[in-house]
Design brief:
The chain has 227 residues and is of the alpha+beta class. It has one domain: 3-Layer(aba) Sandwich (Aminopeptidase). The chain contains 4 helices and 12 strands; from the N terminus they run αββαβββββαβαββββ. A 9-stranded mixed beta sheet has the order 2-3-4-7-8-1-9-10-11, covered by helices on one side. It has a 3-stranded mixed beta sheet with strand order 5-6-12, with no helix packed on it. β7, α3 and β8 form a beta-alpha-beta unit. The longest helix is centred in the N-terminal third of the chain and has 26 residues. The chain is globular.
């Protein structure tokens, strides 16, 4: 029964990567990791997902460093400051002073913190990158998800962006389904193996293969979002 439940949760490919990751982590004291990524291209919607005035208690707006305590986001130390310094745009859904959800947009290349990769969506400037979409559990049955995307799409349209890119782990079928409901389609994949300072990247997008032996060795993946 557990195997069937895991298959429904992860899918065959996701389940394989889930068990490989757990095996590596246990065998090598969490120093070896294997990550599989799907790259998705999502069209910028021309019409809002919800009408004006929906969930009027929730305000969605762009926020800046210092508007909220960085601890509110629940991310690793230094991550939020680094995002703002790198030029990322944060959209927050707020009910009063309570953070109901947030998402991030990056116009240009995004340097990933989880592994040594830089994602470069193409062709610029008509595409962008979205990442770290989060809605607090108590707000997931409402329209916070749609309200965030409506504000994001408005900002993207204003900048002439027609597609956004994002990555989804092979193991995250729920996120895959959420992306596909918004019209996103898969445009590529990458597999990242890290072991101590060594990193191996194999991908369906340029440069297709990359090896680095130090913490400064980043792989720059060029991801065409108009395929």
């Amino acid at each position: 029964m557990r195997v069937l439940r895991d298959l429904r949760t992860f899918g065959i490919l996701g389940l394989a990567f889930y068990w490989l990751e757990r095996t590596f982590a246990r065998a090598f004291a969490d120093r070896v990791h294997l990550q599989g990524l799907w790259f998705y291209s999502q069209p910028v919607a021309s019409e809002p997902l919800v009408g004006l005035g929906a969930d009027g208690a929730i305000q969605v707006k762009q926020i800046f460093l210092g508007d909220l305590p960085v601890e509110t986001f629940g991310r690793p130390p230094g991550a939020i400051e680094e995002r703002f310094q790198d030029g990322s745009v944060c959209l927050a859904a707020l009910r009063g002073e309570e953070l109901a959800g947030f998402m991030w947009l990056k116009f240009g290349a995004l340097r990933e913190r989880l592994f040594r990769c830089t994602f470069e969506p193409e062709p610029q400037p008509s595409v962008a990158w979205d990442y770290d979409f989060f809605v607090a559990p108590k707000f997931r049955l409402g329209r916070t998800f749609a309200r965030l995307w409506d504000e994001a799409n408005r900002k993207l349209r204003d900048k002439g962006v027609h597609h956004t890119g994002s990555w989804v782990a092979f193991t995250n079928r729920a996120s895959v389904r959420a992306h596909e409901r918004l019209g996103a389609r898969c445009v590529g994949w990458a597999v990242v193996l890290t072991a101590w300072q060594f990193q191996l990247v194999a991908a369906s997008v340029r440069p297709y293969f990359h090896v680095s032996f130090c913490n400064d060795g980043y792989c720059r993946l060029r991801i065409p979002l108009n395929r």
